[in-house]
Write a structure and sequence with these properties.
single chain; alpha+beta; CNF1/YfiH-like putative cysteine hydrolases; 6-stranded mixed beta sheet; 4-stranded mixed beta sheet; 18% helix; 32% strand; globular
Length: 192
């Protein structure tokens, strides 16, 4: 079984639509909605994941700029999700894993960890995962709370998951919203 996974780095918004009609990008909303692509006519609004049968020739993609693109495949299906902290809290990873039997999983470049405030975002993460993925960094008498996004993802995915080692914040060739407040996006695409 062979699947192609491609990463296009820091693509400007005017280039997002330059792919052929068999390549699908959901209208991402940080949800846990996953759409199965059967005919290519499905409504992919308000979704952050796509899945299709290995018998199809569709290319499935997501756009990221610090969140993770996570590719899944097994002997019968392949799919992709866009997962940031909201997706983690809303269970998109677990929801996609339920659709596979012993999947191979690849995680794109992502923001490995990031500073977070003690606000609603923090509370939602703590309510789901506890405080084990947070660290405190003392800096000039101003402690900063850091969410270890990559470690949290690792806890949800199979042990054999392959993580790309590139960090979107520290690699200037990758789009990073937290670094540049950019409109550019990293596009990850999986195809049969």
């Amino acid at each position: 079984m062979s699947h192609q996974i491609k990463l296009f780095k820091n693509i400007s918004p005017d280039k997002h639509s330059s792919f052929d009609d068999s390549t699908f990008f959901p209208i991402q909303t940080h949800s846990n909605n996953i759409i199965e692509i059967i005919t290519g006519e499905e409504n992919i609004d308000n979704s952050d994941g796509l899945i299709t049968s290995k018998d199809n020739t569709f290319s499935l993609g997501v756009k990221t700029a610090d969140c993770a693109a996570i590719c899944f495949y097994d002997e019968s299906s392949y799919g992709i999700i866009h997962a940031g902290w909201r997706g983690l809290v809303n269970g998109i990873v677990e929801k996609m894993l339920e659709k596979f039997t012993s999947p191979e999983v690849l995680v794109s470049p992502l923001l490995i960890e990031f500073e977070i405030q003690k606000d609603d975002c923090y509370e939602q993460i703590v309510n789901k995962f506890g405080e084990k993925y947070f660290s405190i960094i003392e800096q000039d008498d101003n402690p900063k709370i850091v969410f270890q996004f990559s470690k949290c993802l690792q806890s949800l995915l199979p042990a054999n998951t392959v993580f790309d080692s590139q960090d979107t914040f520290s690699d200037p060739s990758l789009a990073s919203w937290r670094r540049d407040n950019t409109h550019g996006r990293n596009l990850t695409i999986i195809s049969n």
